[in-house]
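Human: Respectfully, please carefully check these tokens:
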Amino acid sequence: MDEIAAPISPPTKRVYRHRLPTRIWHWLNAVTLLILLMSGLMIFNAHPRLYWGQYGANADNAWFAIGSTPQTGFVRIGETRIETTGVLGRWIDARGVEQTWAFPGWATIPTSYSLADGRRWHLFFAWVLSIALTLYMLWALLGGHLAKDLHIRRGEWSPRHIWQDIKDHARLRFPRGEAAARYNILQKFSYIGVIFVLLPLMILTGLTMSPGFNATAPWLLDLFGGRQSARSVHFIAAWALVLFFLVHIVMVLLAGPVNEVRSMVTGWFRLPPERDAAP
């Protein structure tokens, strides 16, 4: 009796998904934003309170604060107080010594309290972020990346299309075949929001907090409603970027981390087989 030959799986197709400027900016941005976040938390530790308007000091009403009592640590948002002993406000360092900074040393640069060093780290990498973002935005606009990969086409604005993409993500039903090499509508919204909204917002609010820059561009104070408002927006935007990063990592892990990371290192992406062709 003749044996039945096993079906031959079609060869895996590779596509060149990420060009070199995208890959360089991606990894440079990852390191830069991590250092900016950690040094920014050190700067925040110097005065862990946020206000709206031009002025803010200990005697003023803060809409957000991280603090401590002789026994506990807490976070206060408006009138709501959340106990955070051991995590924020009051915690134990690696030497077993109780500390009362807002954010613990493992989350800051430097790990020991130094406002001056935190500012040095933050200012240097803020320039790295600003220059790299400017160059990448110019390349995206002039090199075709925006038009080819991030442009939202008419059919993608359909509420039905957007809702279907949301449902597919909720069901972990990711695109396969040729569609896997293209950004879906949620990715486009996210990347456009980060590149053209959140990152420029971080830079502008950072400049607004600089007294030396206010003489050059006083309109920034009017734009954000004061230095303290700019500081609050800066803090909120920073954590919006953290949220984006966490969601991004989860999506990479669920979609196939080896293939995704390899494509961001080499540029080449292996197309997952169509569902009908999958064994």
